[in-house]
Amino acid sequence: MIKLSHISRKTSQTVCRFHVFKSLSAIAMAFFMTVSFCGYGQSKSTQPKISGRVEAAKTHSYLPYATVQIKGTTIGMATDEAGYYQLVVPREGKWTLQASYLGFKTGEKEVAVKSGESITLNFELVNDYFGMDEVVVSANRGEQKRSETPVIVNTISPKLFKTIQSSTLSEGLNFTPGLRLENNCQNCGFSQVRMNGLEGPYSQILINSRPIFSGLAGVYGLELIPSNMIERIEVVRGGGSALYGGNAIAGTINILLKDPISNNYEAGISYGMTGVGVKGSAGPASDYGVNFNTSLVSSNYESGISMFGYSRKREIFDANNDSFSELAPIKNLTLGGRAFHRFSSKDKLTLDFFAIQEKRDGGNKQDQPLHERDVAEALQHDMKVAGLTYERFFRSNDLLSVYASGQFLNRDSYYGAGQSLKDYGNSVDNSYNAGVQYKFAFKHSSLNVGAENIGDYLIDKKLGYPDVENAEINFADSTITFPHVGSTVVSDQSLTTTGAFAQYDLHLNRFRASAGVRFDHYAVVDKTKASKDKVGSVLSPRVSLMYDFFTFLQGRVSYSQGYRAPQVFDEDLHVETSGARQVIHKNDSTLKQETSHSMMVSLDFNKRLGNVNTSFLVEGFYTKLNDAFQNEFGEPDENGTVVYTRVNAKDGAVVKGVNMELKVKPAFDVSFLAGFTIQSSKFEKPQEDFKERRFFRTPDQYGFFTLDWDVVDNLCFSATGNYIGSMLVPYFGPKNPEGELRVSPNFFDAGVKISYKLKLKDMNAEISAGVKNIFNSYQNDFDVSADRDPSYIYGPVAPRTVMFSFKIGNL
Fold this sequence. Notes:
- By secondary structure, the protein is mainly beta.
- 6% of the residues lie in helices and 55% in strands.
- The strands form 8 sheets. It has a 22-stranded antiparallel barrel. Strands 1, 4, 7 and 8 form a 4-stranded mixed beta sheet that branches. Strands 3-2-5-6 form a 4-stranded antiparallel beta sheet, with no helix packed on it.
- The longest helix has 24 residues.
- The chain is globular.
- The two termini are 37 Å apart.
């Protein structure tokens, strides 16, 4: 794989930010490694102690690694392998203890202790089959039980990633109502997730509740993030701009990283063969993966650190044996972790950090230099993310949070065809998020207020223009000098947003209400002066109501308003390339802000019917887009370059539909989950190109299911399915440069897996094998050769794939 050099003349500001990041990261790591295990602040012998065990109420078996904490403090720990815990209480008085464990309802007990006293407090936790008692943070930017949130929050757990045999974030998003992952490019694998019928940029991707996942990272980001670094994912459908700002029109996807709660380790390997038995293909492609997780906490639980790592190598897959990729080869290396330190019982400092290096190399002739191929789309990502959060409790449960995080991404690229020397590029995208938040906790209500500043600085350059002499391009094993190669700035843009938000939550008997509002002032500055600077102020309200008709039936209704600023978006940073045409994206100079009005109505049923635990959710959604963004397709110039210009659609657009979700657990050893979406996504008037109202690449129906069956002790069988209905797909082949609309067929992507757990002397092991897309429900009319339309791709991301995995650890 090649290594592209940064020929672009980087600004001193960018270099400075990079070195500052490295220095801060080194200082932060040194700080945590110093204080984490020095036993900061020893407990006094006069402080009360509470100890006991946590067990399952039905089986009375102990629950290892359950979390026990004292409410209103940062004091907490994980139980040992025998379910035992011991906590030192700051002082005498009345305290409330919480015990939680995945798959069980949270237990809560109040206890009064005296100075020097040691008491025993045991917990018996009741099964929570559908996670209704799970604590989530995305609904109101604070901890809240999922069953008590006025907006629906779906969670994706590590167990789901294992069931569907996914090593990255991307595929897991297919198994949540209203979400659908799609591949948008044969060459490089540019992908996006659609939520409630809206394209990827309408959803805000958060990392630990911070919007630092930039537009450039979003082009390939869903495949960049490995699943083993994720504690859980929280999905909130419906406008979230009132809390999280712009680009949260369809909803939010909040990625929460693993916390250090105990001393543990786990390591695994996986091997997949993509395209097994696919007729007409060039043969199966190997996909290797290695991962590890470990965490360590101090004996007094005042400090801890967790680390994770992931490495992947996927070979090229050619579905129609024309020597061009349908799935690009990928190499990925990810390292990161999370650390915390408690300075007292009331405050805590947390550091998050990870680094991702990824290479992908789509097109053909992967053994040749990029500019000697017929088509190549090759990328090298160097991404670093870090964040600090300081939390302190006041009064009983008031919580102050001060946070700052940053993302630093450098991407080398080549989007070119026909042995072109001018299509090397470099992009630098630095973003940050800093703010303060305070939650006032009252008896039956809470008030969450805060302010934050968000910035994103993007420089995108093409390196092949004749204004600099003797530029060099460095490959893995050689250096080539071009005497007249220079660079030109394609985009030099900054987006800064200053916002303030407030949300009030009220709980009165069966009724719950949440009202929030956010004020944002944004400034989009184009330093190339290709378009005018864009400045705007936006007020984004949200109101959500919930009523418990019965203990088993909840009704919810909500309204929200959102917006998207006229900035550079992630699809603008992906170039569709073939031997006949090259597609680039840009904003119209008169492009203005897009606004939305969204409504959601839902009924949530959760009840035990006989011996069957049943949960059924039906949710209606309606979103009106004013000044909706849409693309106008330009005509090819003499070089075959086509410009897709983003403009404001006439009379806007409407997206509406129904999401349904069914969860069934008839016995301890079987669980079933299914979801289905019926929707309509249309502009209010036919648009200029193709005279069509319907959104492209947006099916009217899609759905999924998962089944887990514990056949016998330690042996589990899993089955999955993903349905994609037909959709309109534009096709620009070499014989029809004007383009045509085609209707895709329906797809059903089914998978099976079997896993077996082994109990070794001091550790546990698990062996698994499975098949994804077992019936090979996969596109069969890919365009071919160098002149193909690489964006003519739809349906499941991958063909039939055979998977094997093995992991070992003490969990």
